[in-house]
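Hi support team,

I submitted a single chain yesterday and got back a structure, but I'm not sure I'm reading the token output correctly. Could someone confirm the output below corresponds to the sequence I sent? I've pasted both exactly as they appear in my results page.

Thanks,
R.
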Amino acid sequence: MASNTDFVQYIADQCSKAGEIGVKKMFGDYGIYCNGKLFGLICDNRFYVKPTDAGRKQLKTEELRPPYQGAKKYFYIADVDDHDYLSSLVCETCKALPKPKKKKA
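Hi R., thanks for writing in. Yes, this is the structure output for that exact sequence:
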């Protein structure tokens, strides 16, 4: 089951205070980016964030789940209605992630 585009846009809007948010369709679901860094996934209308120590400190509750079968575990974010919480989580997570690799021309 793929994610609903309205849900994807809602998540992007909820994270918008963290920076420039973008989404990209990947394998039937979506990758979500902040300032060019892939920080999470939206799969089956559920929001997942890459696990980092900085992100862990922001979590209200920690739950690790794989976003799809065979995937590494990500933080599963059930509370997607708190705009400030999500933006703070995304901001701190992205600070801890490495810069994206430059694409070859």
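A quick pointer for reading it: The helical segments are 5-14, 53-58, 83-96. Let us know if anything else looks off.

Best,
Support desk
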